[in-house]
Every structure is written in C-alpha cells, then in structure tokens.
Design a protein that fits this description.
It contains five helices and five strands, in the order H-H-H-H-E-E-E-E-E-H. By secondary structure, the chain is α+β, with helices and mostly antiparallel strands.
C-alpha cells in the first residue's frame, strides 16, 4: 500500500520549508568569466558551496545564458571567404613533455582563425620570436591550403 500524497503537492502548492535563495549572479559571473581559467562549472561550484540547496548545474547554466542573451552586446561582422585571417599567440603558456628527459617544456600556442568559416589552426612554438611566428604562419597556410588576400 502506498502512503497518501500530500494535498498541497497535488494542487501545485510549494512544499513547506526554507525557500531556496535566488541566484542573482549574472553581472558578477560575466565579469569573472573574463578572467583566465574561470568557467561556468567553477562559478557553479562556488555558488553551491554557499547555497547547497541551490540550482543544479544545468539550471544554473540555463539561467546565466538567459541573462546573458538579454544583454545582446554583439556586433555583427561579416567576413567574406578568403578575406581575413586572425592570428595571435594565446595568453596562457601550455607545456609539452620532452620525450627524452620527461621534463615539462613551456611553449607558446599560436592560434589562427579563418574569418568566414571560423576554421581554427593552432600550433605549439618554442617562443614568440619572429622566426617562430613566420614558421607558424607558413604551417597554417599549408594546413588550410592557402592564405587570405
């Protein structure tokens, strides 16, 4: 025999107990997401540490995306095919493992993006020096089959 259901739950009333706090972190989350290494997962973990009965991760992300979508801070840019390539070194320095010694070797990460297609090319280089910069451009042109105008 199943226990009887509470009438309040059947007619849509909220169950008794402390109400969960609202998650009003939109502006703060946006500014924190601009910092290196900060993700929505990290922000949610911090949020749940302060409010264990708060939103689940998926709902937290949905609420943040709804809030961010309402800002509409975008500027539409149209790039014609073959017209532009955006290149730079990433801000963070990854490391590779030296096969002979097993030591971690810090490298620079070159990133190139074709404007129209959004195709991404990346390559680890030894430094920011001009010879590495030029060599990375040559490798990117070979990989994508050409250069921008």
């Amino acid at each position: 025999m199943t226990p009887p259901l509470k009438r309040g739950c059947l007619v849509g009333q909220r169950p008794k107990g402390p109400a969960p706090r609202r998650c009003r972190r939109g502006a703060r989350s946006t500014s924190e997401l601009k910092r290196p290494g900060v993700t929505l997962q990290l922000l949610w973990t911090e949020y749940r540490a302060t409010d264990p009965t708060g939103y689940a991760y998926s709902h937290f992300c949905d609420r943040y995306r709804q809030w961010a979508r309402a800002l509409k801070p975008s500027m539409r840019q149209v790039h014609r095919a073959g017209e532009k390539t955006f290149v730079d070194f990433s801000g963070q320095r990854p490391s590779l493992v030296d096969a002979t010694t097993g030591a971690l070797v810090p490298v620079e990460l070159f990133v190139g993006v074709l404007g129209a297609s959004g195709l991404i090319y990346s390559e680890a280089t030894r430094s920011h020096a001009l010879p590495c910069w030029i060599e990375a451009h040559i490798h990117m042109a070979e990989a994508v089959g050409g250069t921008a105008r």
